[in-house]
Amino acid sequence: MELLIMINACKIASASRVTAVIPCFPYARQDKKDKSRAPISAKLVANMLSVAGADHIITMDLHASQIQGFFDIPVDNLYAEPAVLKWIKENIVEWRNCIVVSPDAGGAKRVTSIADRLNVEFALIHKERKKANEVASMVLVGDVKDKVAILVDDMADTCGTICHAAEKLMEAGATKVYAILTHGIFSGPAISRINNACFEAVVVTNTIPQDGHMKDSTKVQCIDVSMMFAEAVRRTHNGESVSYLFSNQLLLDHFFIKIPLRLIRSFVCILRQNQELIFFYKFLLLYCLTGHNCVMTVRLLCCVLFCQRFSSVGQWFQEEGTSF
């Protein structure tokens, strides 16, 4: 409700555009009528945001991608997959001998995408629920024997599903079990279940604050996705493409450079001393590394050439009467 009030306040204050950044979209699981007289709450939330005056929505890992169709305004559904891949390669030593597992059939597409990019196998668990937050039975489809199992899902609430899935994987012969989730809600007995489960680690993003959960459980680890949202906001504000963020991890996280105007002027002088072809290749390489960001590319290239032509830049500063 506070978000709706703020959006409306901006609109009646003559804001030309209002972008709502919602890392964890509320009521995303209520996206269809699964029984008689059930509400479609996700559609209701979409209508409320549109009526309040939102012009653009930025969110991450919707429970169902079709929720984007509930809106009549642009929706950028970012994916945590690039950050997840980065974490797996940096923190799981045996990741080449792993198998990516989906705890339900609905997450099969997400799991196959990660498995393909890691060049490993995947498996899935078919589950049947008695009622909400209560699983009746589970059937594992795939061979996890003598492999590191990585459970991947979009969210975990009471953690009953992933804990039962972890037990199923260990019974099937998995050597270790990790759980990687985008949205860690962790309500009710979730933390106690995680502490008692056979997980090596339960990794979540910070779309929902996790400081308290990390204090309550040493198994809970957090992936910071704030830079991804910041870059999405920047690209949206500047009218640039956001699609790069759907499948790529920012290579220069937390790397911001502010170049003084005098140094940028010296950059122009240095360019005259470099061969055009070499300069083109340097520019092209940095352009790719910065995610097709021209401004950042120029700044980085300025630094590179500054290091290469230190004497020339120092001489320029002396000519300008500036101590270096």
SSE diagram, text form:
Elements: H1 2-12, E1 19-22, H2 41-52, E2 56-60, E3 75-78, H3 81-91, E4 98-102, H4 108-118, E5 121-131, E6 134-141, E7 148-156, H5 160-171, E8 176-184, H6 190-196, E9 201-205, H7 211-216, E10 220-223, H8 226-237, H9 261-271, H10 276-289, H11 294-308, H12 310-319
Helix pairs in contact: 9-11, 9-12, 10-11, 11-12
Defining key terms:
single chain, about 325 residues, alpha/beta, Rossmann fold, 7-stranded mixed beta sheet, 3-stranded parallel beta sheet
Write a brief caption for the model.
The chain is built from 12 helices and 10 strands.
Flag low-confidence runs. 251-262
Query: Can you tell me the overall shape?
Result: globular
Give the helix proportion (percent range). Answer: 40-55%
Number of DSSP E strands: 10
Instruction: Just give the CATH class of the largest domain.
Output: Alpha Beta
Do you know the CATH topology of the largest domain? Rossmann fold
Number of domains: 3
Q: Gyration radius, to the nearest Å?
A: 24 Å
From the N-terminal CA to the C-terminal CA, the straight-line distance is 55 Å
CATH architecture descriptor of the largest domain = 3-Layer(aba) Sandwich
User: Mean of residue pLDDT?
Assistant: 82
Structure classification: alpha/beta
Strand arrangement in the largest pleated sheet: 6-5-4-7-8-9-10
Range of strand content? 15-25%
In DSSP terms (H or I, runs of 4 or more residues), the helix count works out at 12
N-to-C series of helices and strands: HEHEEHEHEEEHEHEHEHHHHH
